[in-house]
């Protein structure tokens, strides 16, 4: 997490968020090969998987193996998602040095996702922090920060109230507000980040996790950038969608985010010409639901083979 104020860090979440809803199992060797190619395009921090129940998300059952393979991928910063204390400890035991703990503002979504209330998840987060070695980084994902698939729009006060419990536990983390359903609008994104940044000035690093379900993913990224956010989750080929949020399709596409920032003169370190062929292959994964626009536009402009 060393991005300067003039640059944007794109956190690639395709190998976790992009894959988790795909039913046919993607061979582990293929996942590792795609991971190498993503890093070769200039992406550094990659959410490579999640320590979760294999019965709930069988696609991610090989996360331990993929984490081990990262030792042979120069430059990668492997991040893993954990939904509770138990799986956080398993991730630490497997050698992970960058955890992303997720909990929801919405009671209904948190119970549907991890069978706990948000406050119970907050308590587990605190216990996990206490057990973490000093050399492990933590990212805190606040799901349904804007909207819930079951309860609708989430009041700003609810998100801030949960953060009131979480931020005092540790401020030197990255705090990510997640548009789980893709129903947030640019003004909502800008207003919530402004309110959170004002209330929690001790948080030095903010991030946005945007979905493009209703075509507002890039607009929301731009709004967050204008508010001072410098880290953005994205999924190559626009793959993704939360299995526990009905109707939430893919994340904003990595190539779309990289293209927008390049046109704005903002550095991401991503080489689009290298990324596009990987995104085309990602879009062709059986069972995947690709999204985004830049992949198709640049592949056509380069006279590449037809790209899904």
UniProtKB/TrEMBL annotation:
GO molecular function ontology, one term from the record: metal ion binding
Coiled coil stretches, renumbered: none
Gene Ontology process terms (BP): ketone body biosynthetic process; L-leucine catabolic process
Keywords (A to Z) from UniProt: Lyase, Metal-binding
Database matches in Pfam families: HMGL-like (PF00682)
Keyword Lyase recorded: yes
Annotated Pyruvate carboxyltransferase domain residues: 8-276
Family the UniProt entry places it in: Belongs to the HMG-CoA lyase family.
NCBIfam families: PRK05692.1 (NF004283)
Name of the molecule in the record: Hydroxymethylglutaryl-CoA lyase
């Amino acid at each position: 997490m060393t991005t300067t104020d003039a640059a944007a860090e794109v956190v690639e979440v395709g190998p976790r968020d992009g894959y988790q809803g795909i039913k046919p199992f993607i061979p582990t060797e293929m996942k590792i090969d795609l991971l190498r190619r993503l890093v070769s395009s200039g992406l550094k921090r990659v959410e490579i998987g999640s320590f979760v129940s294999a019965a709930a998300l069988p696609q991610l059952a090989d996360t331990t193996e993929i984490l081990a393979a990262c030792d042979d991928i120069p430059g990668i910063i492997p991040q893993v998602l954990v939904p509770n204390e138990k799986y956080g400890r398993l991730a630490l035991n497997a050698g992970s040095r960058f955890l992303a703990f997720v909990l929801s503002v919405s009671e209904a979504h948190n119970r549907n996702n991890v069978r706990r209330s948000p406050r119970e998840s907050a308590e587990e987060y605190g216990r996990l922090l206490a057990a973490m070695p000093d050399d492990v980084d933590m990212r805190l994902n606040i799901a349904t920060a804007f909207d819930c698939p079951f309860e609708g729009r989430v009041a700003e006060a609810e998100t801030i109230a949960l953060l009131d419990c979480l931020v005092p536990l540790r401020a030197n983390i990255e705090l990510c507000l997640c548009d789980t359903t893709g129903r947030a609008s640019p003004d909502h994104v800008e207003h919530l980040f402004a309110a959170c940044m004002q209330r929690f000035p001790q948080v030095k690093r903010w991030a946005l996790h945007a979905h493009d379900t209703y075509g507002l993913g890039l607009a929301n990224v731009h709004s967050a950038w204008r508010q001072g956010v410098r880290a953005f989750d994205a999924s190559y080929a626009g793959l993704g969608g939360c299995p526990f949020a009905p109707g939430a399709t893919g994340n904003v596409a990595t190539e779309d985010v990289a293209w927008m920032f390049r046109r704005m003169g903002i550095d991401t370190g991503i080489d689009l010409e290298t990324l596009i062929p990987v995104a085309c292959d990602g879009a062709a994964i059986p069972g995947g639901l690709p999204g985004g626009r830049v992949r198709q536009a640049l592949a056509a402009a380069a006279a590449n083979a037809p790209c899904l």
